[in-house]
Protein 1
Amino acid sequence: MTVETLPLCAYPECANHPEAPTPGNPEPRYCAHPDHNALSAFRTFRAKRQQRKDEKRQAAEAKKAAKAAEAPVDRTPEAAMWTAMEAAPEGKDASGARDDLVALISQLSTDLPGYIEELAIITDSAAAEERIRTVTKAAGRRTLDAERRTALAEEAADLAIAQLDVGKHRFAEETEKIRQETAQQVADVEFVRAELERYRERVAQLEERLDKVREEADAARRERGELARQAEQHRCEV
């Protein structure tokens, strides 16, 4: 029975598994850690590789310091290879040159997986940067759309505020007009009330005069009746 081994995150020394595939990233190579991505992995790998080179250089310098009598030579793999190849045809320590070539080939074989891994990381980082540029462009478009929507909303808000100001102005005009009409109506009512009071006083005066006329008429009738009675009595006596 074959047990399927789950892949690990491509970030150096990370033991987590990659994230689940998504439509935007069908073959994820890194876990959910925010710092584990192609660009960060390349930088970490390059820093460790540089550290190894520095350690080798320091070791070589210490070895050279111990062999102060020997002349300094370029010990980079490429330079040593060409030096050995140039030295071999001249017959000067051919066996040593051959050993150096074998050692260099062995070293290159050892470093080759690292170079391949670095190339894969560089390639993947380029793809990641392309995806970053794509996402940045999409974010820029979304930001532009949001800015446009914001501008439209601000224009609509300004229009609504302008309409509200017009409505408030009209309302103030209508309110002032109603206030003036109400004040005029109140003044008319007060005038009518004053006229009515004046008419009431006039009627009272007329009623008072009417009462006096009635009293005078009653007195005249009584006086005529008395005169008529006296005249009738005088006629009877004659």
Protein 2
Amino acid sequence: MLLITLGSALIYQFATDSFEVADQPAGTVYYTEVLDGRQNSYTRNHREPVQITPAAVDQFRGIVRQAYDYSCGSAALTTLLNGYAGTNLTEKQTMDGLLRYGEYARIIERRSFSLLDMKRFVTALGYSSGGYRAELKDLIALDKPVIVPIAYAGFKHFVVYKGHSEGRIYVADPALGNISFNADRFAEIWDNNTLFMIELADYQQTKNVLALSENDMRHVDDATVNKFAFVNLQYPEHKFEKLADNAATMRRVLDAVPNSTNYGNSTDTYMRMYYKRK
């Protein structure tokens, strides 16, 4: 028993000494490549740390997430000020400023902030700003992020317009993160075609965190999601593709073929259907 214990201790010591153990930044994983990928092998060709970012973190990249159901206005303004004007505010600091310089009684009454409240606070910070009416083509032509109100899912909501690419409008939503809309759909939900803009004299020297990036373009349309919703990698491609097509397009109807032995009874039918939200 003593020999077994000593042997286990030596094996553990050799195993731990063979790896470089050091503190690594959060999000670090180790990528290991074996010497021969065609067979199981403990001989490593190389082993190196790789930094990864969780999708949930990237979803809110550059966005100040709203802390309350009614605070989309303060969160959107904080996002615009931090990401575009280069400030370093918290949502609470912005809320305090909006309450101090805005129409306090009306804010309490409606439990939300207005574009006028935003203008007064931004003016107190020393920036020029204003609310405007515009057409979709005017919004697309802008070279800067702006706050836009939308009427979405039965609610009034503030988001930050980031940019336009290939027929899609990209916004920083303080509730949902970095999302996009089909341009036609955005035109439908854009509330009163209004926007709130901050004017910066040194815009060219300002680092715009809200500028569109490659990560913003990684959207998947509904047809693709439907096609691969039932993918299981243990099956060959033709197998799971057939299952997905059948499961996604199956419905039960009455058999209307007079010569069928099942005439007048329920039967399953498969139809290829594709749809895409606006």
Protein 3
Amino acid sequence: MAFQQSDNMHKFSKVLGSAKNIIVVAGAGLSAASGIPTFRGKGGMWRKYDAISLATPEAFKENPSLVWQFYNYRRESALKVKPNAAHAAIARFSLPSIRQSIAPDSKFTLITQNVDGLSPLALEDALSKSTDAADKAAQKSVIEMHGRLFDVQCTECNHVEFNRSSPICKGLEGTEQLVEKNAMDPEIPFSSLPRCSSCGVLARPGVVWFGESIPHLEVIEDIVAEADLCIVVGTSSTVQPAASFADEVQEQGGKVAVFNLERSEGDSNADFLFIGPCEDLLPKALGLEN
């Protein structure tokens, strides 16, 4: 299927305006402009490690000290940045009071693979500026399918709590700075790593690691099954199950629009392809440029 040229916003706007069940599937590229490392491609190394290899239950079992240092680095990086214009555009579009004039009587869900919390922060900001009671429903429009970086989960009792403390614990304080110094990895004892506030045993980051099941996947699949427009933002579409969502929408007769900084696997099947910074393209494409 031939795709539309990236400057052809008019045809996309018409499709957007007639869509009734809209989903955005977002990846690391959505947060790149905020300064969040993607850990994919050329930026895929953390210290001397393949970052993806650290995002597994096996890696945590073998070396919880190293894995917690990696996630402490990610936490501290995320705490220093703010949502960018792409996050803000998606958040504003999720508000019924705004979306009604762009895509009348439509439903909207953001399915994000990101764990950095920037999309929820952008939504909080958008809601704080709204006086329309109907917009409160948008609080349920963000699904963080790979978990949350600031959730801390017990390894035994499964207690989970949201924690944006910096540092998360004394033992990890300052370890994020070792990246720039190219220092050796300190061996932090279990007793100095984050502990469960409920039972006191070792805790883990509350994210979904490779090899683990996606929570609420059935809910996500139901939303995708109803979608007639899938907007893919900042993802190479290689990680399942999110990589298959766009294909599913097309198979059921819907349209797919891809927003990426560069070409990626499978984007030639898109109905619309927009290449460039999503923080520049998305506000315009969603009718929110001004």
